[in-house]
Amino acid sequence: MATIEISCVEVWREISNYLDGDISPELRERMEAHFKACAHCTAVLDGTRNVVGLVGDGRLFQVPDGFSKRLYKKLPNHR
Amino acid sequence: MSMTGSQLRHDEAELIKRVRNGEREAFYELVHPYERMIYATAISVVKNAADAEEVAQDAVLKAFSGLANFRGESKFSTWLLQITYNEARMKLKKARPHLYESIDDQQQSEDGDFWPKDFADWRPIPSELLEQNEMRQAVQDAINSLIPVYREVLVLRDLQHLSIKETSTILGISEPNVKTRLHRARLQLRDCLAPGIDGFWIRRRPYRKVRSW
Fold first, then answer.
1. Mean pLDDT of chain B
2. Best label site of A51, B1, B62, B118, fewest CB within 10 Å?
3. Which residues of B touch A61 (CB under 8 A)?
4. Which pTM value belongs to this model?
5. Helix (H) or strand (E) holding A59
6. Residue B41: which of B182, B133, B203, B171 has the closest Cα?
């Protein structure tokens, strides 16, 4: 059965859900067919995936030195 | 070896019991795994390190004195981050009441789609790039340039890897709302950070591409 085509606008709308695996198998198939044919949408997909990877990388930000020690200082009778 | 969710819940319930019986050490043990999350949540709202620390300390104090109210309906971490988030918003409200009102306005104007503006090919970036200070700074600046309601969702979901459900509980918004905001946050961030058509990354154009929204 042929995959029903999907527009760029519809693809953009679902890119985030696509990355989270939060779409129906039918929609996933239509989007994947679209990505194969559309360089623009592939660029948006790759870039968005990159961004999610960057933000989720543990090295992105560090907790300040001594944060853990100071965190509990307002507790009553904290030693 | 990873701990299963139910095992974790069980262990935390034990710790909570011990805290309620007056064992202070058990409280440190209970909160310790979430220290980084507390900080990340706080700074995503107040945006500076000093305020984030104060928010974190107040949140931990509230969690300690309010532990009797924790009924275990949500995960302990969700409850703790909810407190942190509320403390952070209160702090912001106190410091900048005007700005705070504008945040509430933003929440209402969520109709309309967000379209990507940049279609440069962006191949996977080598992850060692994050070892560079300027790279980390550029990503942080881009995150900070998002409007608060988008930034908060992005930080909970993509930085802290919380589920849609947890994010919705912490922020007090619906799950579809979490998805919409996350979608916009990601696409805007991509537009902020996408390399130019020539493929040059930030070393050649420090921060210029980071727009404010």
1. 83
2. B1
3. 40, 43, 136, 140, 159
4. 0.84
5. none
6. B171
